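Our consortium's second objective concerns turning raw sequence data into structural hypotheses that experimental partners can test. To show how far this objective has progressed, the report includes one record in full. It was chosen at random from the queue rather than selected for favorable results. The single chain below, 332 residues long, was entered without modification.
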Amino acid sequence: MTDDNIIHIDFASRIGRRLLPALVHSQAPEPAAVHEPTRDPLGELYTLRDAAKLFRLSESRLRYWEKSGFIVRSGEVGSRRHYTFQDLIGIRAAKDLLDEGVALRSVRRSLLALRESLPKVSRPLASLRIVADGQTLLVRDDRGAYDPLTGQLLLNFDVSSLRDDVVRVLKRSGRESDHRRAYESYLEGCRLDEDQSSWVAAEAAYKRALELDPRLAHAYTNLGNLMWKRGHFVEAETHYARALALDARQPEALYNLGFLLYDRGDVESAALHFERALGSDPSFADAHFNLAMAYQDLAKPEVARPHWEAYLALEPESPWAEIARRHLRTKA
């Protein structure tokens, strides 16, 4: 594992004469929620999957934000980390500011001020409002304002509205026990499919997960990886397609299907899928690498160049970094 969220399987370190990053395991979606529906959402903990659904962000983007220290999960249950409601406020603020075109450096300063302000509120979050007049960001509750931050920040939302969104968006249909059992079977598949001797058992675990939750797109993605590793490429493509039928923007399924097409020699289609993966997650380093490689093969080195640069910015110490540097040293 490269970290506790993304599993890179290095079973395809060479494709023909080219050295490429491996297929990517789809991140295990966490259970529907760790909170009881009757409890106060202000005091609850939320999974990465909850936050992705709530704010319509990719899970990969949230993992990258955490890896870079931008927004981290500050709650703990045993060895697992979760978002607190205060963390959700930070994600909402960051997303709104970035969507308005505010510079990332300014957003980081804003979030720091926000984190410093929230603990000073006597009843955090209950009556909080985040406001800005175009020059100054203020955190207000019923007693006044806390920690202004100078900057051109465009933000204005009631925290109570975020609380309402949590209740509305994260409300689950179906039996919670089925979601939980599907997730447990999914995790079992993730554990088993790293060892060739247990691939058959891993396949059975993923299929059990899908019987319990037929919309678990990540299970189809990882079934596709299993089929690839066993040399069943048509079946692999079918599973990736099923994953994308459920979640058309899942970056892992888009990337892995592109990887399969690249290996087949359909470089133009592969490039299209890598582009779509990056449309869902611009911080997907391996997609930048393989998209750059595809453009090199298509005799478009000038189009490949920004993707080599993006890959190096994201993974400067990667084993593949020297390949990117070598291409950048070559004049287009």
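The partners drew two points from this record. The mean pLDDT is 75. The CA atoms of residues 185 and 208 lie 6 Å apart. Both points have been shared with the crystallography group to help prioritize constructs.
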